[in-house]
């Protein structure tokens, strides 16, 4: 019999909305201070730092645009769950890249773009919104509360990209970092259900995954432990499993404590 799946973790819409705005605000403050030389640096893949900075505005803006549209057909169940979302992100890379380049070219003043994006989000995604409102996303119909959690992933991941491209130290909102870490950890446990391996990402998440003998007390025989940023880089392919082990960024004990076949989670 396959392992029973746990009830999905609950997220408070108000706290998630606050986290999205806080993380976006941290990035905006940093982008405002970037020099022309920094903006021209390599950012992510073929993008410059300017293009990466423009791309980051798309995370909250997608929610705003979704909220401008009528709610998808009444009462139907969401077609994409929160834990399915990480595995649905790899199919529109070309469209995203083209839109990112156009956005950067059309907005030479990035701070004005960030200001407009913030104002639209605050207006169109009110704190009183229902978490169960359905919204249309690139990957399918989702609950608004779930879609907001995915925005913490986009913002935290790209904040890390921007930090590594520029050498800056843009801070991470604690709630945004926690939501991002937990979602990606829960997605791992959902795609590889079981209790043979315990994955610890202090201080935000502990999950069990991979089928096999399940421990009930004491220290588990197979344990993986790492910090939130390393976990996020592993889950999104920014860092490889062997690379992280060699750099002592991950500890893995036990013969089954190998997550390499399951990573990255996001394309």
Distance between the termini: 30 Å
One letter per element, helices H and strands E, the order comes to HHEEHHHHEEHHEEEHHE
Percent helix range = 40-55%
Cα gyration radius (Å): 19 Å
| CA-based shape | globular
Describe the structure.
The chain contains 10 helices and 8 strands. With 267 residues, it is of the alpha+beta class. The longest helix has 23 residues, at 144-166. The chain is globular and about 55 Å long. The two termini are 30 Å apart.
Highlighted features:
two-stranded antiparallel sheet; single chain; 267 residues; alpha+beta; 48% helix; 10 helices; four-stranded mixed sheet
Brief synopsis:
By secondary structure, the protein is an alpha+beta fold. The protein has helices at 13-32, 36-39, 49-56, 58-68, 93-106, 110-124, 144-166, 174-191, 228-235, 241-246, and strands at 42-44, 47-48, 134-136, 141-143, 197-201, 205-209, 223-226, 250-253.
How are the SSEs ordered, and which strands pair?
Elements: H1 13-32, H2 36-39, E1 42-44, E2 47-48, H3 49-56, H4 58-68, H5 93-106, H6 110-124, E3 134-136, E4 141-143, H7 144-166, H8 174-191, E5 197-201, E6 205-209, E7 223-226, H9 228-235, H10 241-246, E8 250-253
Parallel strand pairs: 5-7
Antiparallel strand pairs: 1-2, 3-4, 5-6, 7-8
Helix pairs in contact: 1-6, 1-7, 1-8, 3-5, 3-7, 4-6, 7-8, 8-9
């Amino acid at each position: 019999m396959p392992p029973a799946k746990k009830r999905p973790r609950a997220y408070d819409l108000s706290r998630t909305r606050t986290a999205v705005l806080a993380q976006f605000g941290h990035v905006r403050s940093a982008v405002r201070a970037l020099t022309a030389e920094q903006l021209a640096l390599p950012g992510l893949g073929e993008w410059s730092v300017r293009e990466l900075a423009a791309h980051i505005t798309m995370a909250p803006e997608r929610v705003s645009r979704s909220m401008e549209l009528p709610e998808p057909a009444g009462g139907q169940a969401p077609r994409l769950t929160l834990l399915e979302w990480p595995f649905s992100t790899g199919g529109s890379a070309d469209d995203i890249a083209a839109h990112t380049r156009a956005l950067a070219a059309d907005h030479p003043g990035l701070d004005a773009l960030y200001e407009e994006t913030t104002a639209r989000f605050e207006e169109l995604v009110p704190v009183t919104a229902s978490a169960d409102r359905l919204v249309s996303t690139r990957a399918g119909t989702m609950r608004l509360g779930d879609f907001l959690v995915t925005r913490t992933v986009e913002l935290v991941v790209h904040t890390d990209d921007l930090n590594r491209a520029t050498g800056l130290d843009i801070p991470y909102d604690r709630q945004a970092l926690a939501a991002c870490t937990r979602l990606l950890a829960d997605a791992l446990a959902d795609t590889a259900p079981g209790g043979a391996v315990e994955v610890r990402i202090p201080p935000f998440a502990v999950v069990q995954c991979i089928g096999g003998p399940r421990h009930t007390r004491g220290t588990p025989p197979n344990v993986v432990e790492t910090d939130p940023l390393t976990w996020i880089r592993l889950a999104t392919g920014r860092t490889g499993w062997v690379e992280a082990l060699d750099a002592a960024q991950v500890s893995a004990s036990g013969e089954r404590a190998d997550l390499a076949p399951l990573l990255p989670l996001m394309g």
